[in-house]
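Lab notebook: predicted structure, single chain.

Context: the supervisor wants predicted structures on file for every construct in the current expression panel, including those that have not yet been purified. This is the next one on the list. No modifications to the sequence; it matches the entry in the shared construct table.
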Amino acid sequence: MDAAATTAAPDQRDSASCIADPRSLERGLGIFAVHSLLYLATLVGAVSSFPLPVNILFAVANGVFIALMFIVGHDGSHGSLVPQRAWNLWLARFAFIPCAHSASLWRRTHNEHHRRTNLKGVDRVWAPMSKAEYDAASPLRRATERLYRGPFGPLFYYYGEFWFHRMLLPLARDTRAEWKRHLPDCLFAVTGVALMLFGIGTMGEALAPARPLWLTLVMGWAIPFAVWNYMMAVTIYLNHTHPAIPWFRDENNWSFHRGNVRCTVHVKLPRFLIPLYSDALAHTAHHADVSLPVYALPPAQEKLKGAFGADMREYTLSIGEYRKIYTACKLFDFNRMCWTDFEGTPTAATWAADCAMHANT
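Prediction complete. Output recorded below exactly as produced.
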């Protein structure tokens, strides 16, 4: 069942009770149209006959707009972009073409994340290994985990863990059995990507005929897609990873409030930089009520902060803050309930007492 259609648990309704639902067809369509045009405009700049440094700047900007189109598709998949279900489904499908995602595969994996946020074994998004799991892993898997948990890990994480085999085609073990259900959306996504690549090549031939096709595809697809993958990976990392928030292995210690309010971080950026992205970073409000559109998250975040201030996690993103996070958050000790380094030495405060108190209530 889609997250947009699930019935809220009692504590979910309590967490979301202070939030309105201001979905608007006009506003949702406007956001889709504006960001589609900006995506196309930066794509034209990336493949035009400008000097290569200018093309690269446009290519990076195009990757940012792929990420913003993804936000539109994300909301459509939750049924939260506009009020009408059919509009949401089709807007999501089209918005996901630049990031090469099947809408149904995205909903399946993303709903697991929302159903039990930060619960190991259910939520797959940046789920940390324990020391025992790390020690039992192969040398290649340990090296991969060290790469992912380092400063440049988000450059590789989404490629390796999610994109092709979970989001474009149902190749992962847990999705193969359901491949028939995902086939229509997968065919739509693959066809959309093929047409997009053909369009990029055709556009490059018309705008910069002296350039080889491979360079046009690097500027019009490879660089933007790499930028999008990085933005996706680093965003979902920061949304639920911090020395001050735990992961859970025992569902008895987990609750909706813990996973979605206490373990969901509001990463703050100046809104004027990338408004839609900054709005989406009000992530606690999204987890409290997935029916809220991205344009309603900032005021909802403030209301939640007023209601649950002591439980809210927020910070302004900086290089220093990011370094603190990736330095501390390597492995998670599910017995002591704290983050550790790769040697098992604790690097953050423990949640053990809090879990014990929760178990006794």
